[in-house]
Amino acid sequence: MDYYSMVLGAIQKLLADIGQKKYSDVVGECLEKWKNDGDCTMFGREFDKRGRFADYRLDSSQISDIEKGFWTGQTLSALIAMSAQISAMHQRGTEIDLEFMRKNFGVDNEIMTVSKCAGCGRLEATGMDIDKYISKIVIAKKIVDGMEKDNLNEQVESIITMTAPEIEKERGKATARLSNSSIAFTEKYVKVKGCLKCGSSKITEGRLLKSIKENVFVPLGR
What we know:
The protein is of the alpha+beta class.
């Protein structure tokens, strides 16, 4: 199966769907270069300082929903990373092993970054914190599933529309771990501006380590 064409096709479609036709067309050229000449290096070259993707940033104004914007950006980054990995394998003459990809692409995140009160040390996780923690593993699974089942566009669509059941499943697991750790959380995509315990407005960054022995997080640096 031509996984490189599949992944580039998914990137091309995603960019077109969010109104980035200019960049979608660039990917289309790279896809044609691969199909016609067997050249899998063009797409990577478009990201160097002279390439057409050199200054590309996802325009969040194209996506009105902040949650969908986050998942779209993460998915696009993951697809680009997958294309780079497949390209490198082709250049080395290495067989593309999906089981290897499943085990090594988008490895599980052990650290959650949350808000921390500089005054009393209270920790609080937001919806964004939770999604940053779970997104890599969810997106990696969906991409490899799509490659294996030859339905990558459908898998990507389920992520960016947030209809993939894995999203809510992993959110539930993360919030259960937070609850077991007596750490406050909100599902809203909001920035913590003040401490609900002491009233301080000095909010810094805290880090939580996923315990391998219990279904809890262990605060770091306290």
